[in-house]
């Protein structure tokens, strides 16, 4: 009879004076016919890097280098042709005591508030209405997004003609109902309002598309469950839609803050800002934004060092406002 199988680990007996049988070891050599994987270094992909190098070269020459060179100019005095003279922090000291700079900051902040709040609110309302539309949804999307792809210069010329003090379309309509002409482009507050309306008209469609994409990503089962629980449209919007849309709203707030504070073409085209115009930004410099003041200092007065100081001080202000807006939205999310 055959012996029963041995379970467990079998030990190989060692004979007296002779070693036991050799243990099996896996072969480390590559079998015949097998392909050894080739080790590739960074230089082996030089063709791919060469193909994408034009973008990085253009970005480095026209974007990366000018940013850091402007920081270098902020500590120099240079008119663009003469010798560069190091002045340290004198540009920033003069900037701190410059009343025109602080006037441009106030104008920029007022225009930013007057344009950003209606833009985001109107975009959210339009996105909600468009999300519930069943027919012609594509037509409405295109119609609301067209202002964003229109030239800023063309839109500014159009608004200048519509809100003209003497021959504007708005004053002509007001005259038909017995209202005297309104000095849209002469009154300091109305100047800011016209610029804010222009920016609102251009950027509402852009934010509306972003909000609409966020609304379409919300599962319909959530709204059906809320409807079964007896939640109305208003309660559903504030307790379901708004909390889910909060990250998207945070993104639009940050983007609108950056874009809204960089208003330049609107007041420049509306008021024909050039070297021969002493009232840069309109009467009383009511439409003088910070970037427009930078343009005057650097390219009209040929003071590139002071212009660089204005830009970097304004960059710090933008970063502070972005962080403040981000903290406010995040605090509302946690609460």
Automatic annotation (TrEMBL):
Xref: InterPro entries: ABC_transporter_permease, MetI-like, MetI-like_sf
Membrane topology listed for this record: Multi-pass membrane protein
Keyword tags: Cell membrane, Membrane, Transmembrane, Transmembrane helix, Transport
Biased composition (Polar residues): 1-10
Annotated TM spans: 49-72, 109-130, 142-163, 189-213, 244-264, 304-326
Keyword Cell inner membrane: no
Subcellular location: Cell membrane
Ranges of residues in domain ABC transmembrane type-1: 105-325
Main subcellular location: membrane
One of the GO BP terms on file: transmembrane transport
GO cellular component: plasma membrane
Ranges of biased composition (kind: Basic residues): 13-27
Positions of the UniProt region annotated as Disordered: 1-27
Record flagged with keyword Membrane: yes
CDD domains (UniProt xref): TM_PBP2
Highest taxon listed in the record's lineage: Bacteria
PANTHER family for this protein: ABC TRANSPORTER PERMEASE PROTEIN (PTHR30193), INNER MEMBRANE ABC TRANSPORTER PERMEASE PROTEIN YCJO (PTHR30193:SF37)
Assigned protein family: Belongs to the binding-protein-dependent transport system permease family.
Protein name stated in the entry: Cellobiose transport system permease protein
Annotated organism of origin: Streptomyces luteogriseus
């Amino acid at each position: 009879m055959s012996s029963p199988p041995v379970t467990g680990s079998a030990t190989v007996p060692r004979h007296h004076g002779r070693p036991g049988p050799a243990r099996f070891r896996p072969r480390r050599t590559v079998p015949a016919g097998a392909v050894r994987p080739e080790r590739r270094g960074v230089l082996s992909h030089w063709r791919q890097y060469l193909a994408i190098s034009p973008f990085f070269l253009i970005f480095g020459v026209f974007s990366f280098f000018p940013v850091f060179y402007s920081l270098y100019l902020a500590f120099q005095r240079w008119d663009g042709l003469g010798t560069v003279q190091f002045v340290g922090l004198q540009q920033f000291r003069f900037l701190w005591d410059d009343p025109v700079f602080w006037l441009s900051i106030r104008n920029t902040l007022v225009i930013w508030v007057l344009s950003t709040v209606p833009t985001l609110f109107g975009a959210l309302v339009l996105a909600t209405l468009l999300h519930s539309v069943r027919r012609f949804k594509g037509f409405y999307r295109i119609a609301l997004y067209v202002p964003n792809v229109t030239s800023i210069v063309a839109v500014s010329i159009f608004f200048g003609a519509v809100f003209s003090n003497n021959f504007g379309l708005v004053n002509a309509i007001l005259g038909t109902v017995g209202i005297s002409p309104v000095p849209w482009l002469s009154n300091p507050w109305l100047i800011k309002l016209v610029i804010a309306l222009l920016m609102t008209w251009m950027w509402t469609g852009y934010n509306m598309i972003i909000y609409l994409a966020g609304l379409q990503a919300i599962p319909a089962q959530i709204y059906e469950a809320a409807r079964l629980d007896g939640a109305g449209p208003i309660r559903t919007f504030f307790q379901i839609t708004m909390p889910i849309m909060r990250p998207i709203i945070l993104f639009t707030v940050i983007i609108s803050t950056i874009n809204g504070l960089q208003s330049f073409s609107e007041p420049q085209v509306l008021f024909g800002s050039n070297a021969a115009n002493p009232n840069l930004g309109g009467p009383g410099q009511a439409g003088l934004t910070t970037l427009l003041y930078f343009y005057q200092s650097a390219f009209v007065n040929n003071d590139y060092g002071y212009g660089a100081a204005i830009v970097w001080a304004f960059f710090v202000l933008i970063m502070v406002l972005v962080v403040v807006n981000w903290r406010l939205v995040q605090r509302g999310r946690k609460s």
